[in-house]
Amino acid sequence: MSSANSDSDHHLNQLLKLKEFQPSGRGTWADVAEADWEDWRWQLKNRVSSLEGLQSRIPDLTPQEIEGARLADTKLAMAITPHFFNLIDGNDPDCPIRRQMLPSVQETETAPWEMGDPCGEDSHSPVPGLVHRYPDRVLFLVTDRCAAYCRYCTRSRLVSNALGYDFRPNFKEQIEYIRRTPAVRDVLLSGGDALLLSDSKLRQLLTELRSIPHVEFIRIGSRIPIFLPQRITPELCAVLKEFHPLFISVHANHPRELTTEVRDGLARLADAGIPLGNQSVLLKGVNDDAVVMKALVQKLLMCRVRPLYIYQCDLINGSAHLRTSVRRGLEIMEQLRGHTTGYAVPQYVIDAPGGGGKVPVNPNYVLSHNADRVVIRNFEGKVFEYPEAPDGTPLHSPPDTIEEPELV
Ligand code: SF4
């Protein structure tokens, strides 16, 4: 067998292995009753949120993790649902799930270009809890709580309240702003995580928003289907279904996060008619690898989720150890576009530091744009020409080179 063949077999095997659906398992919670395990409130109450809790489940924490867990509450709280915790490989300090969730003392190292509010949300906030940065849509922050906390969180200035932000959303004021701003046709509920609200609170909020005639479209951004699939109950799906068109953007970064429980929860949402998208953050040692990213996006499609964005990690304070280069992100995009289903290819974006909004960044497929042609390359590097007149209108082909098709 040639080495090219064995490389591609190895690649394929790696991909297939990453794409297998596995249950999260019970791990160190083997004795817990089934009814408790399946209860999302039990999962929340039993999150791993202290150094002692971590050490009792992962005896070989690294010194950086131990110190990080001691400091966590002064930056961003640590909390990991039992469901998600079981995806951590306790024997591998480089485990991609572990890197996202376990605090590290490296979070205390900040660079001058890092920020507490890298997307400039606070400066685009007309009333507390509402960010109006784009012309026709607003970000509606519902809570400062999440089911679990991601160490690279863009909103770590406020989520979990470790920094004393004292976030107090005022739904009445937020809704009033939207009501008196007819340009707003799209409302994104986020936080924190909006799906932490009870079903009745969520219904109340969605009813208010739907009563505003110019709100055409509601989105919920949530990592709960991944952290806490038990929350995706038939009752919750029934509530959400009342408020179409309603879309949900989930947030998965690594194919291992897509367990059988997560796949089933996503299927319940999809069956309720909710279009699902995914937003990933490009993270060093987590998903900055083309095989991992390809497995993630393909597995998302199997869960009926359209990969929407890959975000370059924001310049949040203390995140250098989790960030990877834009060049790496572009290389990964090269390995996706044309190499897999178009539906599986997300848009790579940088949220412009300081509040410029999402800027798409793409590998360059246009090699030159001359007076009479655009020179392009395809995903295999083959070069093609597309004729175009200097004013941008299509060129008419010379009659002696193109034969008119025969009409029948
Ligand atoms: S779930 Fe979202 S808001 Fe919550 S910590 Fe993670 S990235 Fe931040």
What this model shows, in words?
With 408 residues, the protein is α/β, with parallel strands linked by helices. Helix content is 30%, strand content 15%. α1 packs across α13 and α9 runs parallel beside α11. The termini are far apart. About 2% of the residues have low confidence. The chain binds iron/sulfur cluster. Iron/sulfur cluster binds next to loops.
Tag the structure with descriptive keywords.
nine-stranded mixed sheet; 408 residues; three-stranded antiparallel sheet; 12 strands; alpha/beta; binds iron/sulfur cluster
**Which strand order does the major sheet show?**
1-2-3-4-5-6-7-8-9
Overall mean pLDDT stands at: 93
What is the N-to-C order of secondary-structure elements (H for helix, E for strand)?
A: HHHHHHHEEHEHEHHEHEHEHEEEEE
Q: What is the rounded Rg? A: 24 Å
Describe the structure in brief.
The protein is of the alpha/beta class and 408 residues long.
Question: Which helices and strands occur, and which strands form pairs?
Answer:
Elements: H1 3-18, H2 34-37, H3 40-45, H4 51-57, H5 63-71, H6 82-85, H7 96-101, E1 130-134, E2 137-141, H8 171-179, E3 186-190, H9 199-210, E4 217-221, H10 224-227, H11 234-241, E5 246-250, H12 260-271, E6 276-282, H13 290-302, E7 306-312, H14 326-336, E8 347-352, E9 357-360, E10 366-369, E11 373-377, E12 383-387
Parallel strand pairs: 2-3, 3-4, 4-5, 5-6, 6-7, 7-8
Antiparallel strand pairs: 1-2, 8-9, 10-11, 11-12
Helix pairs in contact: 1-13, 9-11
The structure holds iron/sulfur cluster.
Residues 146, 149-150, 153, 155, 159, 192-193, 223 line the site of iron/sulfur cluster (SF4).
